[in-house]
Amino acid sequence: QVQLVESGGGLVQPGGSLRLSCAASRITFNQYHMNWYRQNPGKQRELVAAITSGGSTDYADSVKGRFTVSRDNSKNTVWLQMSSLKPEDTAIYYCNGRRTVGATTLDYWGQGAQVTVSS
User: Fold this and answer.
1) pLDDT tens for residues 83-104?
2) Over the stretch 63-81, which tens digit does the pLDDT of each residue have?
3) Chain centroid to CA 83: how far?
4) Rounded distance between C-alpha atoms, residue 17 and residue 118, angstroms
5) Contact indicator for 70, 79 with CB cutoff of 8 Å
6) What is the distance between the alpha carbons of residues 75 and 22, in angstroms, rounded to a whole number?
7) Fewer CB under 10 Å: which end of the chain, C or N?
8) Partners of residue 57 on adjacent β-strands
9) What angle (nearest 5°) sits at the alpha carbon of residue 37, between those of residues 32 and 43?
């Protein structure tokens, strides 16, 4: 079955950097838009960054200028480079792959990676 596997989470001090990776398998990766979401307990999942199958990117206002999303279709991998991290960036980060075919949307999620920003 389709798998999205995140890695790279952890504990970092405010102002530090982390890079999350998401490796996809058993999908035609270059046909999927790839997204990074984050969520804290009791809160809605928030879209943080998106990269289309063509490589166009978009970001939540809260992370613009600090986060960069990129992908390598030859490696079936998408990354989220996070810099100048703040305590409010603490969350579980989820990789999402999405493709719409006609009236059907295919939606796949990773297991999540914990990012904690704390001194």
Assistant:
1) 999 999 999 999 999 999 999 9
2) 999 999 999 999 999 999 9
3) 14
4) 12
5) yes
6) 10
7) N
8) 51
9) 145
